[in-house]
């Protein structure tokens, strides 16, 4: 993979230029794209910008509006669709000096029907979804940075399946204006890169919050809650092994591991994700469903067929449960420095017909709390298997710091 | 003005048809539009839909995306801009059987630079803003229903200035997907009609929440908090007189009037509206500002020039203040059945150069609580002057019920 920090450091020291760094990304794209199929559209040339991320080629998930590239939403309904404006997050990328390397493949409207993208580690395995192209493009070393979005698990899950680092920040830390909505209470922008160090650097530059480029936290003495999300079902052996491996690493580094079950209100909030998303998605995609139902892919079509039955009462109850969950989350996260859980049920599905399952991600998206993941180990099928680090709302720099601390342990191979 | 309930009743009883009701609206538009200038664009014909609002012509503020009419945002930057999809709120209107009578003039991007619209009561007075065309079209009797949006006071204020009924519902009761954002934490869709009765009927049909078509509440025994919003400055004599008139009517009907000052956290939340909006608007309009600053009107341009200096720290503090304000609001509203305050500083400004002032509206928008207004009386310049009725989050049907109760007293002329 391309390290964002290393590229910037080489540019700063004069060993390369922003233009050459972009040319390198362009060459990697030309080499890997035919196999990986990460991009829905790309500009004619990658021109360097001005700012802290000059020389960084960034993939932009294709539900994010761009003024100079079409925005297809992964659907023929938006074939040739050209928005007038760049979404604020794209403006922020460009203002930081990054260059849009292309629009990355998304599942249709960021739901579950697979994108054409392949997992760079195994062309017959899923890259996950819905931010499939973003995760795969970073994992394949084509680009050092990519934007994704998460409504269930669409940033952390593909990152885990493809073996890249990622953050799903606190709700609304990054502006979702100009991002095609699926469920506005849940939709959250996130970043993917080769390492947590890269993710933190990029998030600091894009959000204008220097503290996101946090120093690595020492795990010594850190209180880490180990949370199995029993309400979400059991993991596969690969993810169980990843959480076990994490505990060994953390304990070896002197962390205090605290089993955390979580209040009943968290399990209730987990279940509220369904009706909340159902009711909002029915409205968010009302035009597409009414006018182009036949052009919707089968999983999304069936989902919307059923979701339309959600009543305002069910929605209001789900919102109350979400609020109780957020109240309970404050106590949950205050018991420890961070919480660690499975990033995904297991390794990437060994099929291109499924993007996997977001059940270990949904609660955190609903709570709006920051989650980060880094590549940790390989599972029995040789594909990435990992954990996610979670903290209370607004503690984004803290999950980055802990992810960086863990990253050092992984690199040291202790 | 055209009464929505009366139109539907006449259709139901066979005295007219949906097509004839729409033809009546079209004729009224043809007659009044040259003077009032409420519409930015209109369809070739008004065709009846199917549903509870069949026969109802509805104006749609021109920052709301429509698939078959351009969406200009009140700005030459969006000249000829044709979105692909209808916004969910437009789909909800159509699903309820209403007919889009046209896109109504908005101030540019729903900020303060005036739209071309005139106040139907006085062609030299402001109709208010930003939902200028929506309020004026209803007030002029052109249409029985219109959609507006409020980020500061852009629904309640123009409704008050033009003498129509309106509701700014609880935050996110109506979906803002496909509505051009200005400040996503604040932007709220609202409805305008001839009466609170009409507003309630329309909100029930559009939101799928039958309880919004609430019965009129008796004011007898009702505990009504009278709140002067001292933190927002003093009202003009016209609004002071309107609040006085309201108190006389309510006391005469047996209501218990309770002076309510409000906690310091409310005044703090009122002030948080500024940095909250500044930080989000800077991002929401980043593309327009970077690429078309010269095409922005002077007030918006100067605003964005200054707003860009807002720091993440100021924004985060404003969000914390907003949250403390929402916590305090639960106590504030629990003391009484509803709160009543000024709807605007006074009568409509006697100039087309200003849309007036949102200082008595901002806090409620930030708190996300429902506000309703109805025509109450005339001020010294002969223009409408009125109050707004406010309740705790989610009690939309209650503010409608109380507004309908007040409406009966006003009609009875007691």
Question: Low-confidence parts of chain A, pLDDT < 50 over ≥5 residues?
Answer: none
Element-level helix/strand string of chain A? HHEEHEHEHEEHEHEHHHHEHEEEEH
Q: What is the radius of gyration of chain A? A: 20 Å
The fold-level CATH name of the domain at 4-212 in chain A is Amidase signature (AS) enzymes
The helix content of chain A is: 25-40%
Number of helices of chain A: 13
Span from first to last CA of chain A? 22 Å
CATH superfamily of the domain at 4-212 in chain A: Amidase signature (AS) domain
Mind telling me the CATH class of the domain at 4-212 in chain A? Alpha Beta
What is the strand content of chain A? 5-15%
Q: Most extensive chain contact?
A: A-B, 33 and 33 residues
What does the average pLDDT of chain A come to? Answer: 98
Give the strand line-up of the largest sheet of chain A.
1-3-2-4-6-5-10-13-9-7-8
Number of strands of chain A: 13
Multimerization status: homodimer
CATH architecture of the domain at 4-212 in chain A: Alpha-Beta Complex
């Amino acid at each position: 993979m391309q390290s964002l920090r290393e590229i910037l450091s080489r540019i700063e020291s004069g060993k390369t230029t922003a233009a050459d760094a972009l040319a390198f990304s362009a060459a990697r794209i030309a080499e890997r794209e035919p196999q990986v199929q990460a991009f829905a559209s790309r500009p004619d040339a990658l021109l360097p910008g001005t700012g802290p991320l000059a020389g960084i080629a960034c993939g932009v998930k294709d539900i994010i509006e761009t003024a100079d590239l079409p925005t297809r939403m992964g659907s023929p309904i938006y074939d040739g669709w050209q928005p007038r404006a760049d979404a604020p997050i794209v403006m922020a990328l460009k203002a930081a000096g990054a260059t849009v390397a292309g629009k990355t493949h998304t599942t249709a409207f960021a739901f579950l029907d697979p994108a054409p993208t392949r997992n760079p580690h195994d062309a017959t395995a899923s890259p996950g979804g819905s931010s499939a192209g973003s995760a795969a493009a970073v994992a394949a070393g084509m680009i050092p940075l990519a934007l994704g979005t998460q409504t269930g698990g669409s940033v952390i899950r593909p990152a885990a399946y493809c073996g890249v680092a990622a953050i799903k920040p606190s709700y609304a830390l990054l502006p979702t204006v100009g991002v095609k909505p699926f469920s506005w209470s849940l939709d959250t922008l996130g970043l993917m890169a080769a390492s947590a160090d890269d993710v933190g650097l990029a998030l600091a530059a894009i959000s204008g919050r220097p503290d996101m480029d946090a120093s690595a936290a020492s795990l010594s003495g850190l209180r880490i809650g180990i949370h199995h999300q029993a309400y979400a079902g059991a993991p596969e052996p690969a993810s169980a092994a990843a959480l076990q491996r994490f505990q060994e690493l953390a304990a070896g580094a002197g962390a205090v591991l605290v089993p955390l079950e979580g209040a009943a209100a968290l399990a209730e909030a987990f279940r509220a994700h369904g009706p909340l998303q159902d009711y909002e998605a029915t409205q968010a995609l009302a035009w597409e469903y009414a006018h182009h139902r036949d052009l919707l892919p089968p999983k999304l079509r069936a989902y919307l067929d059923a979701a339309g039955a959600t009543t305002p009462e069910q929605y209001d109850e789900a919102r109350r449960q979400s609020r109780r969950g957020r109240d309970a989350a404050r106590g949950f996260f205050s018991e420890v420095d961070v919480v660690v859980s499975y990033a995904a049920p297991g390794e990437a599905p060994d099929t291109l017909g499924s993007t996997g399952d977001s059940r270990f991600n949904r609660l955190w998206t609903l709570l709006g709390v920051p989650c980060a993941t880094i590549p940790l180990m390989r599972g029995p099928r040789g594909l990435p298997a990992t954990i996610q680090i979670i903290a209370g709302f607004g503690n984004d720099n803290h999950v980055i710091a802990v992810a960086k601390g863990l990253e050092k342990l992984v690199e040291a191979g202790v």
